[in-house]
Amino acid sequence: MDDATPTDLLADLLARLRAAREAAAADPFGDPVLLVALDLSRALDEGRVTIGALAGLIARMAREAAQDRAGRLATYLGMGDDAAALAAVAARLVRPDPEDSPVPYAAFREAVERTRFAAVFTAHPTFSMPLATGTALAEAACGAALPEGLSHRPAPVTLEEEFAQAGAAIARGRDALDALSAALFEAARVVWGERALQLRPRPVILTTWVGYDTDGRTDIGWNDTLRLRLRMKRLQLARLADRLEPLGACAAPLVARAREAEEAVAAQEAAAPVKPDAQTTRAFALAMIGRREAAMTTPDPLLALFPAAIEAAPDAATRMALAVQRAGLAAHGLALAHTHVRLNAAQVHNALRQRLGIAASPEDRAARRGLLTQINAALAEVEAVPFDFGALLGEQASAVRLVMTCAQVIKHVDGSQPIRFLIAETETGYTLLAALWLAKRFGIADRVEISPLFETADALERGERVLEEALRSPHFRDYLRQHGRLCLQFGYSDSGRYVGQLAASYLAERLKIRLAEQMRRHGLEGIELVLFDTHGESIGRGGHPDSLADRFAYLSPPAARAALAAANLPLREETAFQGGDGYLLFGTERLALATVARIAEHAFAPPAEAADPIYAEADWGTDFFATIRREMATLVEDPGYAALLGAFGPGLLDKTGSRPAARQSDTGGPARITHPSQLRAIPNNAILHQMGFLANTLHGLGAAAAAHPEAFADLAARSPRFARALAMAKRAAACSDLGVLRAAVDMLDPSPWLDRAGFTKRPGRREALTSVANALERLGLSAATRRMFRRLQADHQALRAAWPDLPVMQDRLVLAHALRLCLAQRLWLLAVSLPEFSPRHGATRDALVARLLQLDVPPVLDLLGEIFPAAPDPSSGLDFGEPTGPREGASYAAEHAAIFGPMGAIFALVRECSAVISHEVGAFG
Asked: I want to staple 85 with a disulfide (CB 3.0 to 4.6 A). Which of 49, 359, 539, 597 is the partner?
């Protein structure tokens, strides 16, 4: 680096990085990432670059990465004249052939009044930006300038804030759905005149589980769920009244009734206890019951007022506006969005063990037949029991408590719409039958839609068998016929991280295709299938990177849709918009309109005509994806993979939700990660982003492609389905670099630190570098991570040999990794300079150094602040009535200035680099 500080540090570093990468192409022993990191570290040592200059550089990189992310978002959504796109969808429904006659009115009605698609807003921990930054990014996607000075690191987010962000995104989504309804009415009026306004279109609906998802969360009580569900009702009523009020006298009765209900619901919401006890719960119960009639428990009183309002409307535009609002109310009931609740299969099993004394474990296959016999006998005899809010307060079993909560929502909040009852980790049909027993026990089997979640490799592989166990029960078949639908949920984050994203998608598609025969075998033709793909906005969570249209086609391939249509099984697709990342797609009115337009185009897309050659080569496809699954499963069990994920990966991540990324140890600090299952899926994926190698999408592809390279190349060129899958790998490759990963692995190896110690001339640096090497030796992660790296390296080199034009990581993203590497190394050098101290708070100096190497910095700095207080002794200078000597060691201001303060500043920049990388990748986790 030049002696003088460069006028444009970013341009200078990028130029040096490019030169190092070009040199490394001819030198197999060169490591451009480490070279740039070391070069920058020397510049810091010599004062040619300051930490302040790096802070400005990282802020600039974050802004540029956010600006590019906004541009990619606009492209991803295919933004254009989306109102015209909705009109085109509606016109095609009325008249599929522009040169032919329109479809019959009844056919059009069936097409638009059956829900075909639901957008589900979840609270996954992907709130990776402050709300103001996310809002600015969404506006930049629509053409606005990105403001200067934005913070890019996430701020702590509470459940209330998650709910507020979800509510705002849902409100914009509802406005876009109004535009869809208006387009459908306009197209229908051209042919059928005012008769068209009798329709209640609902082809697309919105749903949420924010505040209702208790899987893996203990902080959401029944009182929270009811309070937030009441708020969702109040928001719906307020929105309805706000939309109708400008229409004048014809809508006045509707507005008055909606405002009356809104006021009553607000009173009920205010009465919801924060910390329930007998008295506050009793007061809440009385408010729910006493204001029940005014608040309404069904939209029927409002719907009954619409015909008179439409009749009294002064013009066609007003009639249209009334019809649009009626459609939205009928489609969503008394809520801004439909309701999903979620819990874990183990919670259901525990509830039945308590209620029915069923002691056998559902996981015990030898006892499975007897268990199914027992639950079927119980289903034949179960009778509904009454209960009140007092019983809900006293209930200890979480599954029973959730079913009771659902029953109270249906009884006192809104009984017009069913509640989806999602069960995570469903791996046996007994779970579904047990949930049905609970629903029957509390009298709501006709209002809850029980849905298994298949999210592990075993569940996707055995999903057909799980359903078979449930479908053999006459009680479950009768339940499905009563509802007219079977609901299934597919998870991609967990399945993808264990078997690879491409293999997980293949397993899910295969299960969907097999459903057709299974439903026919049990005489369930004509039953609607609701397939909820719980994926996210990153490729590690199953989100296709090319476009929203590709995302839908990837999750719901034309072959699967065609198989279900041929079996006379109507299909409703549902897709997740996960946390802050997902809400971005509804971040402005324009973005929401574009998202709904793409949904409508997909939902009403005609079936694919040409056969995809990947299905003609079924054996080759099975072998290809099985190879990926095998290789990824082997990687997951490699101790070095867990070591890499847990070494300092969690320390690179700010908290983006309410749950910890990993379990905590009893002695403080992060527990040693010995298997990826000890991390949650989204932090697991996010760490791979931050380590610079997206193994959960890429690994295993090399072995699979190398087995038959000619067939790989041929199908990549001819098969749309296969090419769409490979596009996931293409994007993963653009965010991955073996050199970046190698640099991280080298960080954990004592040898390079000792090599540097032998070369350094800087006073005191040799001792510091040697101390880092000794600390890393004690940490003992190097041997395992190097073995694991060689596994990844061999497979990835095989992939690049079979796929020569696979993209490479761009320079700016490589530089972000190199900058952070430099900062982490300097933080480690400060860590080994900690003063000696007597063990206290259960911590020793060596233990704190180890935690700092794992980047567990903030809690360690807090502890060091207690051990080495910066403030002087408050008693200094006071007269205590007797002679005193000099007070030594009363303040550690020097240590704070030289070690602890700089360590905190450097760590903040490490996390700022992580925010840059998240923007470059385009999602969190």
From this structure: 597
Q: What is the dihedral of CA 7, 13, 15, 19, to 10 degrees?
A: 150
The CA-CA-CA angle for residues 512, 516, 520, to 5°, reads 150
Res. 196 pLDDT band, cuts 50 70 90: very high
For residue 924, give the amino acid letter.
F
Supply 882's token pair: 């007797």
pLDDT at 789: 98
Q: Residue 380, Cβ neighbours under 10 Å: how many?
A: 10
Does the pLDDT of residue 804 top 90, yes or no? yes
- Residue 240's contacts (CB-CB under 8 Å, 6 or more residues apart) are 254, 258, 302, 325, 328, 329
User: What is the distance between the alpha carbons of residues 676 and 685, in angstroms, rounded to a whole number?
Assistant: 10
Q: What is the mean pLDDT of residues 338-363?
A: 91
For residue range 25-53, list pLDDT tens digits in order: 888 888 899 999 999 999 999 999 999 99
How is residue 878 written in tokens?
């006071």
- The stretch 849-866 carries a mean pLDDT of 95
Sequence-ordered strand ranges (E) for 345-424: 419-424
Number of C-beta neighbours around residue 355 at 10 A: 17
532 pairs with which residues across the strands?
Answer: 489, 574
Checking if the pLDDT of 457 tops 90, the result is no
The predicted pLDDT at position 880 comes to: 77
In angstroms, what CA-CA distances link 883 with 873, 890, 891? 17, 18, 21
C-alpha span between 199 and 181 (Å, rounded) = 10
CA-to-CA distance for 726 and 722, rounded, in angstroms?
Answer: 6
Q: 664 phi and psi, to 5 degrees?
A: -95, 150
d(CA 50, CA 6): 12
Whole-number Å distance between alpha carbons of 96 and 617: 33
Question: What is the Cα–Cα distance from 59 to 77, expressed in whole angstroms?
Answer: 27
Q: DSSP assignment of 578-645, as one string?
A: EHHHHHGGGSSHHHHHHHHHHHHHHHTPPPP-SPPHHHHTHHHHHHHHHHHHHHHHHHHH-HHHHHHH
C-beta atoms surrounding 275 within 10 Å: 7
Do the beta carbons of residue 674 and residue 637 sit within 8 Å? no
Burial 710-736 (b: 16+ CB within 10 A, else e): eebeebeeebbbbebbbbbbbbbbbbb
A 10 A CB-CB count for 191 gives 15
- By CB atoms closer than 10 A (0-12, 13-18, 19+), residue 169 is buried
User: Is residue 85 scored above 70 in pLDDT?
Assistant: yes
Which DSSP helix (H) or strand (E) runs through 195? none
Task: Name the percent of the chain lying above pLDDT 70.
Answer: 96
Tokens of 68: 């590019």
Beta carbons within 10 angstroms of residue 774's beta carbon: 16
Is residue 93 a contact partner of residue 180, using CB atoms and an 8 Å limit? Answer: no
**Distance from C-alpha of 510 to C-alpha of 133, rounded to nearest angstrom:** 40
Residue 505 · residue 499 · CB < 8 Å: no
Q: Which helix (H) or strand (E) holds 176?
A: helix 159-192
Q: Where do the H-state alpha helices sit in 500-533?
A: 501-521
Give the mean pLDDT of 515-523: 91
Query: Element (H or E) spanning 573, and its range?
Result: strand 571-578
Whole-angstrom distance, CA of residue 885 vs CA of residue 573: 79
**Treating both helix axes as pointing N-terminal to C-terminal, what angle do 429-441 and 457-471 enclose, rounded to 10 degrees?**
60
What is the rounded CA–CA span in Å between residue 240 and residue 237? 5
Place of tokens 């600039």: 60
Burial 137-151 (b: 16+ CB within 10 A, else e): bbbbbbeeebeeebe
Which residues face 341 on adjacent strands? 421
3-state DSSP: the chain helix, strand, coil percent, rounded to 5? 65, 5, 30
* Residue listed under structure tokens 């130029």: 15
